[in-house]
């Protein structure tokens, strides 16, 4: 199959690009599961934007939003990129309103929220299911666009580049090998304009707020293709994932209690009811996420408690039900009446701040290959993402990527006929009993990363993780070439690859900065005031 544009992923970044690219040619959008299963769809929090004069909070400004982002990023943000993305906020909101997204209002004005690290109220919400509202509206627009073909249950195995085929001097994208999960067949999708928008890698950790689909596929695809990776050591742990050991089911294990709850007055407390975060940072529960997550981790280790608590019992009756209906009903389903008792919470892997290194237009080092959204490292987030900047980034960079692509690679200009692409090579049929080992390795990787490479790190733990991951990579390589491939093997292959990138980047950063905190190097160092980069040769 050949198309003018090939988009891998169906969150806000990929759909923003696809809907605009459809005005210039045929677009194919691939998603390995169902279109509504993206990280965007799971985003309870909102989207940050400094609105136009008269709509924004008094005293807020682009400069203030830029300053807050730079402060959270702990010295590693690219200020020019931050400014370009923040300046695009009002256009982003206009874009989403055009797709039919309904943001909360009070009268005829947007109801703006405040979250950790923000100095002003500038977060727009659609109740507490903002991501779901965005994806639903954008997918409806996709359905109505005749130039877009959306294919669900299509898993990208590998990208195809000229360098891999060793046929031309420059490294350019040619397409991808794609597994149809329904038929088990592998197809070649040809395109010289490919956008990776496959989200993050939360499932590399045992506890995460991400959906099961977040296995780092886009990062692994980009790395194997030869793109540069940057800052993979910076994994953001959301401070408040619902904790209830008696509850069962995927939602109970990964349910996020939005930061917006703390923005509206929720307070983190220990078992004694003490506001312990105040001893760590004067901003308390509204400090940036890296600080709050470490404070919780420290409190749990100090007291031996299984969790801490988010207290909203001081809010008026009916407040949670009105402002956070999804959270209110979900915790109630698991036996917590949050109007009268505190919500048990623990940190969990939430957002990947590093990724495929790009510029603000999403351009990678491979000609024609772009990366947008969580899969990319544009320089916006630095060492720690400011809350609710990710949806903003996805939309702004999705728009900029299309503009840059049309400038550099407009359809019909300088088109070089692609070389013959060989059929994908694969292994034999797996024995059923060996599949058990595959699932065991999946679990081992996630536990290994949680125990050795999570909120607080040491060189010793990182080296142990690296040694075990090297052996796991060999085992996974044997599975990949020794068995008929399926989505489980592909996800395992990507998961172990991304885990290795996180550990390698963490070992190289011999300081503590933002989300990377190590007991061996507890201070920041100007020697490491730069991106950690890796590339496969």
Q: What would your notes on this structure say?
A:
This protein has 537 residues and is an alpha/beta fold. Among the domains are: 239-348, Flavocytochrome C3, Chain A, domain 1, CATH 3.90.700.10; 432-522, Methane Monooxygenase Hydroxylase, Chain G, domain 1 (Up-down Bundle). Helix content is 36%, strand content 15%. It is built from 16 helices and 21 strands. The protein has helices spanning 12-21, 62-72, 79-87, 89-98, 130-143, 162-165, 217-225, 250-254, 259-263, 289-303, 319-323, 325-333, 389-408, 432-452, 459-482, 487-508, and strands spanning 5-8, 27-30, 47-48, 105-106, 109-110, 112-113, 123-124, 148-151, 154-161, 173-180, 186-190, 194-196, 229-230, 235-242, 267-269, 308-311, 343-352, 355-357, 369-371, 376-377, 533-534. It has a five-stranded parallel beta sheet with strand order 8-2-1-12-19, with helices on one face. Helix 1 (12-21) links the parallel strand 1 (5-8) and strand 2 (27-30). Helix 14 runs antiparallel to helix 15 (459-482). The model has no long low-confidence stretch (mean pLDDT 92).
């Amino acid at each position: 199959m050949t198309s003018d544009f090939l988009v891998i992923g169906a969150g806000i970044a990929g759909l923003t690009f696809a809907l605009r690219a459809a005005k210039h040619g045929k677009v194919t959008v691939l998603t390995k599961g169902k279109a509504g299963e993206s990280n965007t769809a799971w985003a309870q929090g909102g989207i940050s934007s400094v609105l136009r004069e008269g709509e924004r909070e008094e005293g807020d400004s682009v400069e203030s939003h830029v300053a807050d982002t730079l402060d959270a990023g702990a010295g590693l943000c690219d200020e020019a990129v931050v400014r370009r993305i923040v300046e695009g906020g009002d256009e982003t909101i206009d874009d989403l309103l055009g797709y039919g997204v309904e943001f909360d209002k009070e009268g005829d004005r947007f109801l703006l929220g405040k979250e950790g690290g923000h100095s002003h109220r500038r977060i727009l919400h659609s109740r507490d299911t903002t991501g779901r509202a965005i994806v639903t509206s954008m997918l409806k627009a996709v359905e109505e666009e005749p130039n877009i073909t959306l294919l669900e249950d299509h898993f990208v195995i590998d990208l195809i580049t000229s360098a891999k085929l060793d046929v031309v001097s420059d490294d350019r994208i040619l397409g991808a090998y794609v597994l149809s999960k329904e038929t088990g067949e592998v197809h070649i999708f040809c395109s010289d304009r490919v956008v990776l928008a496959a989200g993050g890698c939360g499932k590399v950790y045992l506890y995460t707020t991400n959906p099961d689909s977040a296995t780092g596929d886009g990062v692994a695809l980009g790395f194997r293709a030869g793109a540069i990776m940057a800052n993979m050591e910076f994994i953001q742990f959301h401070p408040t994932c619902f904790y209830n050991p008696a509850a069962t089911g995927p939602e109970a294990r990964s349910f996020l209690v939005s930061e917006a709850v703390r923005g509206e007055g929720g307070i983190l407390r220990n078992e004694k009811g003490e506001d312990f975060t105040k001893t760590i940072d004067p901003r308390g529960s509204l400090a940036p996420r890296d600080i709050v997550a470490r404070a919780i981790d420290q409190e749990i280790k100090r007291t031996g408690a299984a969790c801490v608590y988010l207290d909203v019992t001081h809010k008026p009756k009916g407040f949670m039900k009105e402002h956070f209906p999804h959270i209110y009903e979900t915790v109630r389903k698991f036996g917590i009446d949050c109007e009268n008792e505190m919500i048990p919470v623990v940190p969990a892997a939430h957002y990947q701040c590093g990724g495929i290194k790009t510029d603000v237009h999403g351009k990678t080092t491979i000609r024609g290959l772009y990366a947008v959204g969580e899969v990319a490292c544009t320089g916006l987030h630095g060492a720690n993402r400011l809350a609710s900047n990710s949806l903003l980034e996805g939309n702004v960079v999705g728009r900029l990527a299309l503009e840059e692509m049309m400038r550099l690679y407009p359809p019909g200009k300088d088109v070089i006929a692609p070389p013959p692409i060989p059929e994908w090579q694969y292994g034999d049929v797996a024995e059923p009993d060996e599949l058990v080992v595959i699932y065991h390795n999946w679990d081992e990787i996630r536990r290994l990363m949680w125990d050795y490479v999570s909120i607080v790190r040491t060189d010793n733990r990182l080296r142990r993780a690296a040694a075990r991951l090297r052996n796991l990579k060999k085992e996974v390589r044997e599975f990949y070439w020794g068995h008929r491939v399926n989505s489980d093997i592909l996800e395992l292959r990507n998961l172990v690859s991304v885990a290795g990138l996180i550990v390698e980047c963490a070992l190289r950063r011999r300081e503590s900065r933002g989300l990377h905190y190590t007991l061996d190097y507890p201070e920041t160092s100007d020697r490491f005031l730069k991106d950690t980069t890796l590339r496969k040769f």
